[in-house]
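Let's do one together. I've listed all components of the complex below, 649 residues spread over two lines.
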Amino acid sequence: MQSITNDLETRRRLSRLKTEALLLSRRFGDARFDTESGTWFYIERFPIASGWNKTHIELLIDIPYGTPGYPSVPPEWFWTDHDLRTNEGQSLNHFFTRGPSTDREHLDHGWGHFCVHLIGWRPAGGADLLRGHSLITYLDLITAIFRDQRTLSGAR
Amino acid sequence: MARDVDDIVLSSTLWSELRSHLLSANAKPGHPGGDEQMAFILAAPNVSASRIRLVGHELLRAHPPDLDHQSPSAISPNGQFVATALTRCRREGWSLIEVHSHPFDPASHTTFSGIDWSNDRMKMPRLAAMLPEPFYHATMVVGQNSLDAHYYQRAASAIRPVKQVTIVGGFSGDSPVLHHFPASSSAAASVLPQDARHSRQLPLLGVATQAALSKARVAVVGLGGLGSFVALELAYLGVGHLILIDPDRIELSNLNRLIGAGPDDVGRYKVDVFRDLIERLAPGVAVTAVAAPLLDNEALHHAKAADVLLGCVDTHGARLSLNHLSIRYLIPLIDAGTGARLGTDGLDAKLGGQVQVVAPGVGCLECRGFIHPQRAAYDLAPPEMQEYERDHGYGTEEARPSVIFLNGVVASIQVAETARTFTATSVSKDVTPKLVIYDANAQRAFSAAVSYSPECATCGTHGVTGLADLAPLQAAFQVAPTARPAFARASLS
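Okay, and this is what the predicted structure of the assembly comes out as:
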């Protein structure tokens, strides 16, 4: 297995993530990313709607890092607090406390695995990240998902 | 022996901007527009199995403040303009193409002047010493009706001719997507085909098109129901070199639609079966068979050598990869797909397909909405992630319905569009439609308009056009991600 080369593709992805981190840190505070290879993006205190056993969660988003990768390939999986539940103690749909075999050690460190599969994805071009999809719209989607507690918790 | 740079490949957008900068429509001696003009092109190499191409990425125009001298017969940039370009070459890895005009040369064989040669002999070795490999340095001169180009070959310490300049993309909605301009120093008299084998189609295609096809390298990616038809039709048509790419072996369930394959072929690689078939049916066609997925290094090495890519794949990940290969390396992609949707009673099926052209300035599969993001993400994920998704009911590897007559019709449309691409190259008319839709239920095919978005993250102004080997395709499973941060556990409230 090769390490990710410091090619132009990686530098382009890092440049985009840097801009997205700057924009998102204005809304969510600490927003960090993998400055070496651009394979993850992290927000320490992400606010979620009421109805959950927490008001803020940690978010760690897996960035597709092949070529083609992000932004042509959308992010789908993210990691968050493994003990996130509804106020009534129900667990979430689409939330897994066991990740892929390669990530088992990671799960042991307190993360749970959550997926958001996208149907429409038209990534924003490099000139204006606010025109089209990006991590900004992806996080907007996560915000919306946590508002829809009935669906997410599987409540009838 | 070191290989030469075969050609310089530019997008039609860059070429249009370059020509309008170099050759003012109102140029007259003694007027401001009548002086020589110059520009730099930042380019990336495409070093493949069979040739080396320089792929244009960005145009840097020299304006009067960037010049030390400018007249109708000479031009020289100032040190600042040169330093800016060379700094980007050093930092970002670009190769450099210097272009200047001979604005009053109407000849059909514009070439370098003695002063041009003298300058190049002096500066090319110096630049080669300053900038490490794989830096390539080429110069190009553009007249009113022709051009010439050469480059510095390090191994031989010599200036060598570049064969041609290839323009990819549409100048307008109805323009052809592939043009070749022979370089004056390399222009050879074309040898017209005289073979009896193709004599019945020569009146339909024309001698120039048949000659262009015989010199063409065409990659067929995917040898399933579509690709098997396409590969055989291209061989019959007289394409000179076919590159066949598919990782799969033939299964019994493929035999309803793999034209030419039989029970004895079950278990063999598809590419081997079709290489053998083509060698028997059309022995004049060179065939390279690669039994690997497109993102395999060997497959990419051969695919990026092609003049045209034919997409005959059935996954969105492979289709997205082809889309990127096309835009990054400036290779036109003619993509095809078929679809069958069963009615509720299992009988009232809807059948159809589409063939479309991807090139810079024309649009791509992403900005046209032909890539399903979820399926592409699944297809391009590492194998353990795919297994994990399947375990949770997200991914699917269900076999989709497919029938030979649908594949045959759509494949033939795809091959016809390929022939028209090379026809357009030779006669600059009879252009390739950008999207053809086949409605099998209505028994009709029609061309449809496509839109190009300059904001597209892939083929748009700030996309990946011309990045070539500086940002090569690479499967996610070939690389190891860096360690993720630890969970802070600071969010409990």
